What does this fold into?
Amino acid sequence: MAKRMTRHRGDEIREFLENEIVTGEIMPGTHLDEATLAQRFAVSRTPIREVLNRLSASGLVELRPRRGAFVAHLSLEKLVEMFETMAEMEAICGRLAARRMTEQERDALVQSHEGCRLAAAAGVPDAYYAANTTFHEVIYDGCHNSFLSGEVRRIRRRLHAYRRLQLRLRNRMHSSYQEHDEIVASILAGDDQGAEKALRDHLMIQGERFHQLVTGFESLKAKAV
It folds into this structure.
């Protein structure tokens, strides 16, 4: 058995476990035994430990001293609160970016928006998620507030699994791209209030649709990577 696991394989295992946790196939409180997972994925325990550490950083797993890893209990109410908080923080990023972005950063925003368009047209949720991440990262950098961008990135990592899976809901990629149109237009026009509102609405739509996401998990299970 290989002692090291490639980054690609590690991402595959992490995403697989994320999907099972988010969709409820692995229930909150379940003990994630390293040896069992290593056997399941045909890797050593060391890379499994690395994956569990990454899941812990995202809030999906709790690491308990001398007891191991357990699936975290995260209520629907808490998730909605996290989406609300992220919406407000990204809204501020958008407002500041509209004021502070350089021409080079504005060009990068347009390019990242085009990447989202291509991914949405291809109909590949994971490709869109990657392009969407780049799009938002450009805005974080463009706000030129390292403390704010660091905090919003931290919350975004906590919601990674839920944001990635919600793109599998019907028409969500295309509606997300259309919402990006308004964000880009506002930032390029230097309309700080418009950019703030567009980003808040973009993220709050996800929060308001979270009940739809939860009820749609059953149909997503069969499609989980």
Notes: DSSP finds eleven helices and three strands in the chain. The longest helix spans residues 76-100. The longest strand covers residues 61-64. Residues 76-221 form a domain with the Four Helix Bundle (Hemerythrin (Met), subunit A) fold (CATH 1.20.120.530).
